[in-house]
Write a structure and sequence with these properties.
- The protein is an all-alpha fold and 196 residues long.
- It is built from ten helices and no strands.
- Helix 8 packs across helix 9 and helix 9 packs antiparallel against helix 10.
- The protein starts with a helix and ends with a helix.
Length: 196
Amino acid sequence: MQPPARERVLDAAHQLMLTVGLARATTKEIARAAGCSEAALYKHFASKEELFIRVLTERLPQMAPLLHGLAAEPGRGALEANLTEIARQAALFYEQSFPIAASLYAETQLKRRHDEAMREMGKGPHLPIEGLAAYLRAEQDAGRIRADADTFAAASLLMGACAQRAFAYDATAEGRPSVDTFAARLARTLLAGITD
């Protein structure tokens, strides 16, 4: 039995966006790869931008549930272990999303439409930073992070480093560091700056 059309479209879009990039993955090609008509695709997704956002939120590792859960219960688990897991999930997300999203920056109109769709859907790359900053503030209120620590800057540093891992390290002779080693080192280093 075939999966529902919506799932087939998401799978096909994910695969095409990975292989040819967002800019070159047309809705016609996505529908053909999903084994449905373009009209059927538009029954489930209002636009290519919405489809892209759904691929990001439904096919890639998600940080929001982890961040919300930790922020709701500050003091749970070791701070270093929590930040290591956040960094691991973020690094995996950026590693998988970077090849898809990179072509956004090649076409100004596509980027503008994408940004507008993200705003309309209440999504965006700022949300993981805000979610991590909220978690760090909760830990700060619980006394596990220094009172004078800038939680937004700390969240920006962690997420930025994870995004940079997806972008920069492939050009080095050593290649991209393993996600587990990278996440542990990043969490340890960040903690040294925000805890006593």
